[in-house]
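Tutorial sheet, problem 5. The two components below are modelled jointly, 396 residues in total.
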Amino acid sequence: MTGNQLMSTYQKLYLGVILLLLILGIPLGKGGYCFAAGADPKAKVLTRLAILPFENLSGQFGASEAVMAGLVSALQKEFSLISAEEVEKTLVELKVRHTGFLTSGQIIDLGQRLKVEVVLMGIVDTYRQVPAPEVSFFCALASTKESAPILWSNYFCAAGQEQLYLLQRNRDIKWSSLIHRVAEDFVRSLPKNREREKD
Amino acid sequence: MSVRNVLTSGSMAVIIMSIVLCIAGCGGVKPKVYVNPNTNFGFIKRVAVLPFENLTSDRFADKKVRDVFVTSLLSTKVIDVPELGEVLKALESQGITTPEAITGEVAKSLGQILGVQGLVLGTVEEYAVNRTMAGSVPEIAVSLRMIDAKTGNIIWSVSHTEKGGRILPTVFGIGEDTLSEVTVKAAKRIVDTLVYE
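Model answer (structure tokens):
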């Protein structure tokens, strides 16, 4: 091998190392989530849950329904959920118009009417399906006892597009997969110290 | 070009690239903070976060940023936060329509009603995704302050701007932050100045 060929080999080697560093060192897109960790749970038993209609700040019609539908299907496996019809009926009876900011009294009343110890409230900030799926929402669990303290809150955001221009590879995660992953992470991040009642 | 020169230039290329990646990974500037030196923050167990003022073109920027800030505050597990509904009810009882109208006396009353040691007021100055030739850069700018519910004095004040990653999306077209992610990062940095500094 001549000197020039050797130098060419070294140059290729270094280019390869640089490329490898780029591939390994750079996060592969933003298909992941960011969480703001929740508060410590104070409730010991968490089996029956009433999900209040999420407030929609995304500007997209139907955003809160779409997010809630994804969460409900994941939550149903873990909790006994009060039906949406019953929740709506109770909200109307109590004349609650905005579920984004409830008072302690309203939360306690809801708990008594729906016979639940906790309610889940949420606000959808972002909801987009084009050009790539993106969702972000805030949710909180509030106790329906005493002063109705917030037991847990979390903020979820997820984008469904991964790109690596260097390799010209695009991978768009479908909305259904994105919300499914968010829902699973949501359930995983819920308070752990709960015991299942035997119905 | 000698072998030694090739090795040196190759090493330099790796070092420069590592520095570029480190810079790209850096999260941005630290918030500008004021902390009253005479305040013992150990007594601050519960704070009311009032509705933020919105100076942006996003109609709900104040609510979105407030929610993220409240979650970050709760996640410290040292500070409790009353529900927004309770805060609004307390403000209404004092005849307060805008948080800017809060005086020292009103702060004391709100503190007693809500059972809090501090009141957090905030302004969202920027909340948008700025589209440039190089790509989209989400940006958020907020200013927050905490008023002592007993004295009405400002005991903590912070001003912070957080932008999404610029080098990676611009140079390599990857790693774009969403506005929500940038908001979460900003909230965490701000809360860290309250709890850990």
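Marking note: The helical segments of chain B are 3-25, 61-75, 84-93, 104-114, 167-172, 179-195. Full credit if you identified this.
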